[in-house]
Automatic annotation (TrEMBL):
Main EC class the enzyme belongs to: lyase
Gene Ontology molecular function: lyase activity
NCBIfam families attached to this UniProt entry: malonate_gamma
A Pfam family per the record: MdcE
GO annotation, biological process: carbohydrate metabolic process
Superkingdom: Bacteria
Classification via InterPro entries: ClpP/crotonase-like_dom_sf, Malonate_gamma
Protein name: Biotin-independent malonate decarboxylase subunit gamma
Keywords: Lyase
Assigned EC number: 4.1.1.88
């Protein structure tokens, strides 16, 4: 689904979302409430300009519209892999984007992420995954690391990783697997405006991260919540 179709299903004609060099910004209205919209499209690789543009819009929203909910629309192939961006310090630009989202949350803004097309690696980690909760459309393509790259990093054969991915969501891409791991809070089907309305119903401001707990409940990450709890309590009996 492209962003225009998505916006029509979410808000009808009641929005002024615009695209500028694959960055989406604007304002929409749902049930009489203004919502700040920011995100990406065209499977863009997030570079220094892309990260800075999104962060700037979020900071402007915090300054000019205190408490206004923010919806982050995610469609990215990940971090831009160019020498220029690396030399300019893309890691700091992406950290700036992530910290801007955290500042919005701490300032009382409800922040919702929605993967509507593709979400890969660093471009996803510093946008949708920084939200209070990240949701996805069922057909969205989500992965932080592809199996070929994972094989190179872990030195485990791609065939073995493909085999593991059949039964373990940690090794497998896709919205359903990220739902099982708790990285995605829910899949939006049917009435998308109703899904957004429900997501916005949560409390604004800093919230407890429930992803490891959801992963345990859904069977996608069985140990993360227990290990985190044991570390937090200085318990040395955490499972190996």
């Amino acid at each position: 689904m492209n962003w225009r179709e998505l916006a029509a299903q979410l808000f009808g004609a009641d929005h002024d979302i615009a695209e500028n060099e694959a960055v989406l910004t604007g304002t929409a209205r749902l049930d009489g409430q203004d919502i700040a919209i920011v995100g990406t499209t065209e499977h863009v690789a997030v570079g220094v300009e892309t990260a800075l543009a999104q962060a700037g819009f979020i900071l402007d929203t915090i300054a000019a519209h205190p408490g206004r909910p923010i919806l982050i629309l995610v469609d990215t192939q990940g971090q831009r892999l160019r020498h220029r961006d690396e030399m300019l310090g893309i890691n700091r630009y992406m950290a700036h984007l992530g910290k801007s989202i955290e500042l919005a949350r701490m300032s009382g803004h409800r922040v919702i992420g929605l993967v509507y097309d593709q979400a890969l690696s660093g471009g996803f980690i510093t946008s949708g995954l920084m939200a209070d909760a990240c949701h996805a459309l069922p057909d969205a393509s989500i992965r932080v690391m592809g199996l070929p790259a994972m094989a190179r990093i872990t030195k485990v054969s791609e065939d073995r990783l493909t085999e593991l991915a059949q039964s373990n969501p940690v090794f497998a891409p896709g919205a359903e697997n990220y739902l099982a791991m708790g990285g995605v809070a829910s899949l939006w089907r049917g009435d998308l405006a109703a899904c957004l309305r429900e997501a916005l119903g949560g409390e604004a401001g800093p919230a407890r991260d429930l992803r490891s707990q959801l992963g345990a409940e859904r069977g996608g990450r069985r140990l993360a919540a227990n290990v985190a709890a044991a570390v937090a309590s200085d318990d040395d009996t955490a499972p190996a």
